[in-house]
Write a structure and sequence with these properties.
This protein has about 180 residues and is mainly beta. The chain has helices spanning about 95-105, 170-180; strands at about 5, 10, 25-30, 35-40, 45-50, 60, 70-75, 80-90, 110-115, 120-125, 130-140, 150-160. It has a four-stranded antiparallel β-sheet with strand order 6-3-9-10, with helices on one face. A four-stranded antiparallel β-sheet has the order 7-8-12-11, with no helix packed on it. A two-stranded antiparallel ribbon has the order 1-2. A hairpin with a 2-residue loop joins strand 7 (about 70-75) and strand 8. The longest helix is centred in the middle third of the chain and has 10 residues, at about 95-105. The relative contact order is 0.22.
């Protein structure tokens, strides 16, 4: 049986990784919102490139497997323009001084985070004004096998849904993002 087409939107090919939940491990690219000069969009609406200010770079966070999740929730009312609450939660792996310093540097800073979902699609959180690190909890674990590391929660508001980044191949998208580091 073929895939269902509804409301003019074709579902992905049967068997495609459309509904693979979660964020891929080691796939969070983080940028300071104020250091982004421009987002370049394609004709279809994806972000094809991020232009950073001169001598500015982003960084990549390694996250624990099955620990990261992105949500966005529409808020609409009669007396306000609609917007989306965005939230990205992830437990990061590294427990060294450089990671602790990076976490401290993210406090009270507007950020843009590109994440790779397990479906192979890349999306941007914080494109419209940034997301902020609003929660940070470190856990040491109790027994062997427990997860150790910092859980980070980034939240923000956007005037539209999180857009896709460089919607071509996974490898090309990762090469492009890594070139910003």
């Amino acid at each position: 049986m073929g895939c269902v087409i509804t409301a003019g939107i074709a579902a992905p090919a049967c068997g495609a990784r459309f509904s693979s939940p979660g964020i891929d491990r080691t796939k969070l690219w983080v940028f300071n919102y104020d250091e982004i000069a421009a987002f370049t969009s394609s004709v279809t609406g994806e972000v094809d490139a991020i232009t950073l200010d001169s001598l500015k770079v982003g960084f990549k966070l390694d996250v624990h497997k099955n620990s990261a999740m992105f949500t966005e929730e529409l808020q609409s009312g009669e007396e306000s323009a609609p917007f989306y609450n965005q939230s990205l939660t992830a437990r990061i792996i590294a427990t060294d001084t450089a990671t602790m310093t990076a976490i401290e540097d993210m406090v009270d800073v507007d950020l843009v985070i590109v994440y790779k979902g397990r479906n192979g699609k890349f999306r941007l959180a914080g494109e419209h004004g940034g997301v902020k690190l609003t929660e940070n909890t470190y856990e040491s674990g109790k027994i062997a096998g427990d997860a150790v590391g910092d859980t980070l929660v980034f939240t923000g508001q956007a005037n539209g849904k999180a857009r896709f980044f460089f919607d071509t191949s996974e490898a090309a998208s990762e090469v492009t993002l890594d070139s910003y580091l």
